[in-house]
Amino acid sequence: MGEASVAELRFSVSRDAGAVSAILVRPPSPLALLVFGHGAGAGMRHRFMEGMCGALSHHRIATLRYQFPYAEAGRRRPDRAQTLTATVRAAVAAAREVEPDLALIAGGKSMGGRMTSTAQAERSLPGVRGLVFFGFPLHRPGDPSDARGNHLREVDLPMLFVQGTRDRLAESDRIAAVVAALKGGASIHVVEDADHGFDVPKRAGRSPEDVYDEMAVAVRGWSEAILA
């Protein structure tokens, strides 16, 4: 298929938040471009982000992964929700500018996905055709409330939830019930034995690359379906 091209760029979020870094990975003849936000505890260069972008590229999904301002500044505490959703919007705009001819999907790992759906629930993300969540953080460990998912009812796009069966931030039966209750267009792909970071125990007999590839296959199949 040929090698993917990799380009580093920057885009502005706002006067207060400044500019952030991003990495565009573009395989030959991509099907779509995923605007990909990182989780709360790690930036865009975390091994999950690197590995997932590589696997997606192998399956013809380009990615634009980006930093939230707090990660860009080297801070550990995430920005306010208003700044996080503004960053999602700015990233989508940057993706449209650099790849105007590619279909856009958007989402992220954990917090990055939740902030993407929050932004879409508040006001449609221009040009985005669907949302992908890698480990949607439905609740804190042991918390009986699923209030973090309430806004999903306001999202009017197809959604794919990629969830591990050992995810303590989205117990399997609870996330399945939330997805089932959403109006048409929401689906779930279950990764057996995976935790919130998509690590699997040695007894599972699968490498991180195997897990990333499984998820990338699911995203590609879902993307082909919603873009058909």
Walkthrough of the structure:
This protein is α/β, with parallel strands linked by helices. It has one domain: Rossmann fold (3-Layer(aba) Sandwich), CATH 3.40.50. It has six helices and eight strands; from the N terminus they run E-E-E-H-E-H-H-E-H-E-E-H-E-H. The chain has helices spanning 47-58, 69-72, 81-98, 111-122, 172-181, 208-227, and strands spanning 5-14, 18-26, 32-37, 61-66, 104-109, 128-134, 159-164, 186-191. It has an eight-stranded mixed β-sheet, sandwiched between helices. The longest helix is centred in the last third of the chain and has 20 residues, at 208-227. The model has no long low-confidence stretch (mean pLDDT 97).
Concise summary:
By secondary structure, the chain is of the alpha/beta class.
SSE topology:
Layout: E1 5-14, E2 18-26, E3 32-37, H1 47-58, E4 61-66, H2 69-72, H3 81-98, E5 104-109, H4 111-122, E6 128-134, E7 159-164, H5 172-181, E8 186-191, H6 208-227
Parallel strand pairs: 3-4, 3-5, 5-6, 6-7, 7-8
Antiparallel strand pairs: 1-2, 2-4
Derived structural class: alpha/beta
Cα-based radius of gyration, to the nearest Å: 16 Å
Order of helices and strands: EEEHEHHEHEEHEH
CATH class: Alpha Beta
- CATH topology: the name is Rossmann fold
CATH superfamily: Alpha/Beta hydrolase fold, catalytic domain
| Average of per-residue pLDDT values | 97
Q: What's the main sheet like?
A: 8 strands, mixed
E-strand count: 8
Proportion of helical residues:
25-40%
* Termini separation: 22 Å
Number of helices: 6
Shape: globular
